[in-house]
Amino acid sequence: MAVRDSARTTAHVADVQAGGRAAATSAPIPRAPSDLTPQDLSRPDPAPRARQMAPTLSAPRPPSRGRRFPFLWTAIAVAACGLALFGVRYEIPRQVDHYPILPATFVAELTAPATLDARRIANVATTGAGQIVSLPVEEGDVVAADDVLAELDPRTNRAELAAAEASAASAARTVEMARAELARARSAQERLAREHQRQTSLAGRGVIASAALEASADALAQAQADRDRAGAAVAQALAEEKAATARTDVRRTLLDESTVRAPFAGIVTDVPVHVGDTLATGAPVATVVDPASLIFTAWLDEASVGAIRPGQRATVTLPGTPAETLGARVLRADRTVDSETREFTVDLVPDMAPSHWAIGQRARVTIDIAAREGALATPTRTLAPRGGEPGVWVVRDGRIHWRPITLGGVSGDRVEVLDGLSPGEIVVDADRPYEAMRVVPRSSEDGS
After folding, report:
1. What's the Cα-to-Cα distance from 260 to each of 102, 143, 255, 273, 406, rounded to whole Å?
2. How far is CA 434 from CA 177, 393, 394, in A?
3. CA distance to 66, 129, 319, 416, 427, per residue, from 102 (Å)
4. What terms describe the molecular function in GO for this protein (predicted)?
5. pTM of the predicted model, to two decimals?
6. What's the pLDDT tens digit per position in 108-163?
């Protein structure tokens, strides 16, 4: 801008000089007084007018002080902004949540997903084929041992039982007849034995001929054979009677099993059939669960195998509105690791059955695996990892500084700190923290 003013001033001076030369050329040359005539003396003097018309030359005006230092004020403004930003960033304290690190008892925990199962669960099925004619239970019903779950059409089994019972009765009569025949044969044999003994005595005294003694011996032998045959007939009749009785028992059992009963007291959790369905042998009718045998089966990573012991206390949380929390204990740990998931299962017994439950229901279990006295722990919300390394923001002289730490086990919303912090130090949970940020504890009005 000063350059343009200087050029404008130079042009103005040139124009004035050119105008002055033109005025001097056109003006008349003055003469001496002796050369003036009376007419010349009577004319007005043109010099004052020429002096009025001649421009006055002046020197160019120097630039103003503001234009003399155009960048000075900009630099001052930038510096002022920088100082203001520095003050806002590093000198104005921010309210953050403070957490003192104090020694305390720390209970390490393992948390894992789980599902509800039962140690005593029966999928009750039929032992014979038939059509369902009665189904007195529904899902959710409470039953006692031997309560009727379903009834199949009994007519076929009842008829077969009647036939078996008739066969058994016939076999029993055959046994009686065989025993009667055996008794007759035994009596005849005993009589002929006595007669043969008498004949033998007479033959020894020479009273009877030898032919009579031989005839007596033959009769005795025949009687003995008849007795043996009668005894075998009795044994066969008894075997047939036993077989008939067994068949009767089978038919009676099948008739009884036409009525499907609960094997133990529990709750019916599934009824997959309906009245009128025709079932084959072994078809499922209902599922009965003993609520006293409920367990939760959790899946844990194989790295935790050595940390699980029977009897450890645990907490089970069932999702819902509201969520339900139960106490539990570790029953056993499976020593087989799944080849794909690299996990093993742990069974936990709840202290009491959930108020509302279903087999296969999902849950989360938290197992207390170890307790240490005088441990240091920090809330998980204070963790601020950098490049995969865990760390926290520690307060020192009213400012926070990032520090790496070594973590241990987890307990709820707290994590054990094995190294990196000392008792009495304070860590913070800050929004977008940075090195050397000035902080103060959050006031109660801010919801600390």
Report:
1. 64, 13, 10, 13, 62
2. 110, 9, 11
3. 63, 71, 34, 11, 11
4. efflux transmembrane transporter activity
5. 0.58
6. 899 999 999 999 999 999 988 899 999 999 999 999 999 999 999 999 889 999 99
